[in-house]
Amino acid sequence: MIDLHSHVLPGIDDGARDAAGSLDILRAAVEDGITVLAATPHVRDDWPTTPDQMEAGVAAVNALGAGLEVLPGGELDIEFARRLDDATLARFGLGGNPRLLLLEIPFAGWPLDLPHVLFDYAARGFAVLLAHPERNGDVQQRPELVRPLVEAGAYVQLTAASLDGRFGRRARAAAHGLLDTGLAHVVASDAHAPSVRAIGMRDALDAVGDDRLGRWLTYEVPGALIAGDPLPPRPATRRRTMRLPWHR
Predict the structure, then answer these.
(1) Residue 207 contacts by C-beta under 8 Å, 6 or more apart in sequence?
(2) How many domains does the chain divide into?
(3) Residue 203 contacts by C-beta under 8 Å, 6 or more apart in sequence?
(4) Edge to edge, what strands does the sheet with 2-3 contain?
(5) Is residue 242 in a domain?
(6) Sequence-distant (≥ 6) Cβ neighbours of residue 208 within 8 angstroms
(7) Which residues form the domain of 156?
(8) Residue 248 pLDDT more than 50?
(9) Residue range 38-47, pLDDT digits in tens
(10) How far apart (Å, rounded) are the C-alpha atoms in residues 19 and 137?
């Protein structure tokens, strides 16, 4: 699997505190079946990560030799990213693709100017992957808020812990609603630690309930986005009903 969202870099944000914490996340990722991991530290006012810090962190975690490839990236706050020039944004390109940005959707409040933001990025040659919109309170009430963004060319990343219920029933319902209506393209861990907000990609795939769709979400689409290729067609499959862990 390819995981396009993690906070594995040591001492940069609210993810791994040190190299030992990074190694714990990397080992958990390998055990979960991940072969490629994008390091996406927060880039915002409270954690104003620079490209130099991110790139140095990626080199450091790759040097740990955990058995998977760590690629560069950044989780960009919508407002903070407005202050960054195109060259800086390109260095934060997701998975090393300088034309692909991971944009953080806030948990509270819906950015009303998001269509304009996406139009501006497209005009500048950037594609956008929206991080965890299913965790936004407005989207949980109205998942269709995401549709015009996808129709405008944005991609959507769901968090593994939303799909399998670890983030609660509202996040789970929103995640499955977006998935069922074709408004989701990627599943990622958003891992901050091996046990707290853990990797959990295998559990998420079980929650998806379809092996072909799961591969599309965790390997085929992430690989195409990193390479800058067109997305492969979504498989025409039938998902089984999800049962939450506490119902098993």
Answers:
(1) 163, 164, 165, 176, 242
(2) 1
(3) 160, 164, 245
(4) 2-3, 36-38, 69-71
(5) no
(6) 163, 179, 187, 214, 217, 239, 242
(7) 2-231
(8) no
(9) 999 999 999 9
(10) 34
- Is the residue at 125 inside a domain? yes
Does the pLDDT at position 179 exceed 50? yes
236 lies in some domain: no
Residue with tokens 């991609």: 155
Is the pTM of the predicted complex or chain greater than 0.85?
yes
Tell me the CATH number at 180: 3.20.20.140
Specify whether the CB–CB gap between 198 and 217 falls below 8 A: no
Is residue 239 assigned to a domain? Answer: no
* Dihedral-angle region of residue 159 (phi above 0 means left; psi in -120 to 50 means alpha; beta otherwise): beta
Under 8 Å between Cβ of 102 and 5 = yes
Number of other residues whose CB lies within 10 A of the CB of residue 40: 32
